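Quick illustration, no need to memorize.
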Amino acid sequence: MRFRLSLLLFLALGACAGHVGPTVEFLTPDGPPRNPFSPAVRVGNMLYLAGQIGTDSTGKVVDGGIQAEARQTLNNIKRTLEQSGSNLNRVVNARCSWPT
C-alpha cells in the first residue's frame, strides 16, 4: 500500500490595504489542473495550497517509497509556491495527513 503525503500550506503574502472584502483567485501555475482542485488559491493576502502529492511532471507517483514521495511532494510545493509568486520562507502553517 502506498502512502501519499498531502500538505496544506498557509502563506502570508503581505498586507492588503484598501480591500473591502477578500478576493479569491484560483491559480493553476502548471496550466489546467489534472485533478478537480486548484493547486493554489489566493484569498486576500493569503495563499493556500492543498492536494500536493509525490508525483512527477507526468502525474506518476515517484518510485522509492515514502521518503522519495515526501521529497517529491516538497519539491512540488516549492515549485507551486514559486510559480505563484511566493516561496518556502513565507510558509506560516503546514499540515500533513495520510489516508486512514
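The domain at 6-97 is CATH 3.30.1330.40 (60s Ribosomal Protein L30; Chain: A;).
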